[in-house]
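Continuing the series of single-chain predictions for the mutant panel. This is the parent chain; the variants come on the following pages.
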Amino acid sequence: MTAPVVARTAPPADLHAELMDCLQTNLAWLARAEHGVSPLVLGARLEFAPRTGSGRLPTVEADTDTHVERTAGALGLSLTERHVLPPRAAIPPTGPDTVYVIADAYHLPWVPYHGHTHMDHSFLLARDDSGRAVVCDGYHNDTPHGPARPGAWTLTEEELAAALPDGARVYRTTHTGVPRAATEVAPATAAAVEPYVRAYREHPDRAEALAQLTLETWLLARARRLHAAHRAAATGPGAAVEEHLTAWGKLTEQTFLAHRRVQRGRPEPTGPLERLAELLYADARVFAAPAPAGETPRGTGTAETGPPDTDTLRTAVAEEAAAVLRVPAAELLAGRALTEVPGFSSFRMIDIVERIEGRLAIEFDADDLVPENLHDLSGLCRITARAHRETP
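Parent structure:
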């Protein structure tokens, strides 16, 4: 597979791909590039509507067919033709059209899920002036297997067929008109929130529950960022909304960290589920009526205060963090926040925690492992000093 970016299939500058999931983003690319529709219309309505998933836990993730239909409709697109291709079948020539394709990410060589994870993933397929297949994929995300970024790739027919060993769904679209969507927040009700949280709290397989909850919080946080961007396009950003989005981001990190700890046989941190309920209830309040400046949404949390421990401990913590982030330890010792280092993410945060534990032969208290303590050197040093004192 070659990888030259085709100029006329470069993603629109205002695609906002980082705010959408892997099924939304390519319909949004198509609607923006061909019909001038802003992708932010997808964030007009915010709701919490969990459903019974294919597993044993509820989920906010819609099934693929429903999600694609809703996304297309919100963008003013109609899915006019649908073809289900059998395994390893070649996608017929598209002519001058661009088609929308859904296939298994496990087999798609341009995404980081290739060879790792089975999941529905979308892309656009067009033809260049020579009739060659051009794959366009606007997905933007940081994954455990590396970053996914928007791009375009030219494939041979053999490469395209090899990427579809399990077949694919191919859609043609037409534009039905400029969508009109009212900005709306449907308040999360106790009837929806309490059973949802209880199902995750009481699930007997904690690793399974936290793995699914990690995906859930990621989906919920991303939907709220998209809704905030839609609102900000008309009204501008607000401090309370930014604080609320930060709280959602921290919850996603904390849940992922809890999952990794339980996978390794460590105690499960308390707090993520309570914070999840608080943030769900706060959505309507924060988005409908921005809080006065300085008010922090419930569940945001604050960092613990107090000086870090000895210089020796501080140096050791800085060296382990620097090794993961590939920066000089001196920069972190001088006060550079971990969050300011390119590439810092919840995945790197996990690596830093585990390296510190291994080097100093300690085990962090599960309840200390919240983002407020993990985004800068001083916070890491505080909890490291405490763990050092309490570890036998």
